[in-house]
Amino acid sequence: MVQISEVKDVQSRESRTAAHTHIKGLGLDEHGIAKRVEGGFVGQADAREACGIIVDLIKSKKMSGKAILLAGAPGTGKTALALAISQELGPKVPFCPIVGSELFSAEIKKTSVLMENFRRAIGLRIKETKEVYEGEVIELTPEEAENPLGGYGKTISHVIVGLKTAKGTKNLRLDPSIYESIQKERISVGDVIYIEANTGAVKRVGRSDAYATEFDLEAEEYVPLPKGEVHKKKEIVQDVTLHDLDVANARPQGGQDVLSMMGQLLKPRKTEITDKLRSEVNKVVSKYIDQGVAELVPGVLFIDEVNMLDIECFTYLNRALESSIAPIVVLASNRGMTSIRGTDDETKAPHGCPRDLIDRLLIVKTLPYNQEEIKTIINKRASLEGLSVTQEALDSLSVHGINVSLRYALQLLAPAGILSKTAGRTEVTNEDVQECEVLFLDSRRSIKILEESKGYL
Ligand SMILES: Nc1ncnc2c1ncn2[C@@H]1O[C@H](COP(=O)(O)OP(=O)(O)O)[C@@H](O)[C@H]1O
Ligand SMILES: [Mg+2]
């Protein structure tokens, strides 16, 4: 049986899309009604309200076995909505975004990649009450003794650690192996630490805030002096994903103690995660859940461009949705009737998804924006990028937004800003926009040029 130990917080994945940094949430009021401009979102009220209901369903755990499809033209905010859903759910709920085509790699089976991402989207909150010694370190003295094996030098026979809390102090006499952990965690006098009584694992909580004014430039976390006795029961909460557990248990391990486990996490090595390992991890996890030690936190798996999946992946998806520990799956597609990848017949299916999957989907439609909405979105992006744009330039950008796409209009913003800066102006003017329009083709003009040039570039 695998042993599940503490795992360090691993950032499941950084949110990659800087294009959406202005999106801060769905921007709904307490009745679930979309405010016109809120949370970085502009317009698209129906889709936002629908997503608000979905967030409520997820929170009340009534979404299992179902998935959501965001359908709409490119640039209508599907990815932004998925991101907003995850923001509404909060940072403790895992969110794993992938693009349909990511599944196809030469090295790993596509269903295995899909499985991995499913497990990235399933969180586990482990709560344990442990017997600990906690306090601010006031003394840290290793005591040496003659080497019992003879030979030269001295060995550390034990270490004296003095811990202080608001209630009192206690001196502990600890095993030398714990001294090694203390050194690895770089603990010094003035730190707040706890030592697990059973395992001897040492954890540094932060620096005692009594030392807070020592230096100004420090990336330190200051924590208050712990209350209560030094020796007590403490509830320790950790959020991990099933994938974290798979990875932590797949690596060849130096030792069974927590620290060597942590050390493994710091030097990542690719090891195959087998189905056998996953089911072993599942067994331990469900035991933890039965015992009330852990709680399952289903997160969100977002699959963009779902029409890129093939029939094999869809079959897998259908089955995975039925599992009792499925995350919430959000799909996005900008296709109408398309043939499904991997099928021989040319029958078209809506959004390139098989019928049996479509049946389980809650479909949310995103609509194109009007000029006024596009203008507001561009304005928001401009202020985020630190650009001021004249009214005239805004108008012509929003015309591009209508005629070409919102994305094209947003993309012109940054180069236009550079042009105006080079010209020594503080504002982006209409001339800058027009110049950019000449310099950078949109997709339609580019296609037209390609067609006219008959195969030559
Ligand atoms: N309603 C909206 N309010 C604010 N910004 C939006 C809105 N809709 C889309 N955007 C922004 O427009 C750009 C394109 O949207 P995106 O979500 O990528 O479209 P899609 O995924 O539907 O192709 C992104 O930068 C996104 O943040
Ligand atoms: Mg998108």
From TrEMBL:
Question: Which processes are annotated in GO (biological process)?
Answer: box C/D snoRNP assembly; chromatin organization; DNA repair
Write down the top EC class of this protein: hydrolase
Can you state which reaction this protein catalyses?
Answer: ATP + H2O = ADP + phosphate + H(+)
Q: Where is the AAA+ ATPase domain?
A: 64-368
Keywords in UniProt for this one? Activator, ATP-binding, Chromatin regulator, DNA damage, DNA repair, Helicase, Hydrolase, Nucleotide-binding, Nucleus, Transcription, Transcription regulation
The record's listing under InterPro entries reads: AAA+_ATPase, P-loop_NTPase, RuvB-like, RuvB-like_C, RuvBL1/2_DNA/RNA_bd_dom, TIP49_P-loop
Identify the EC number(s): 3.6.4.12
GO CC, alphabetical: Ino80 complex; R2TP complex; Swr1 complex
Q: Name one GO molecular function term.
A: 5'-3' DNA helicase activity
> Which compartment or compartments is the protein found in?
Nucleus
Pfam families to which the protein is assigned, alphabetical: TIP49 (PF06068), TIP49_C (PF17856)
Q: Which PANTHER family did the record assign?
A: RUVB-RELATED REPTIN AND PONTIN
> What family does this belong to?
Belongs to the RuvB family.
Tell me the function of this protein: DNA helicase participates in several chromatin remodeling complexes, including the SWR1 and the INO80 complexes.
Q: What is this protein called?
A: RuvB-like helicase
User: Organism source for this protein?
Assistant: Pichia sorbitophila (strain ATCC MYA-4447 / BCRC 22081 / CBS 7064 / NBRC 10061 / NRRL Y-12695)
Taxonomic placement? Eukaryota, Fungi, Dikarya, Ascomycota, Saccharomycotina
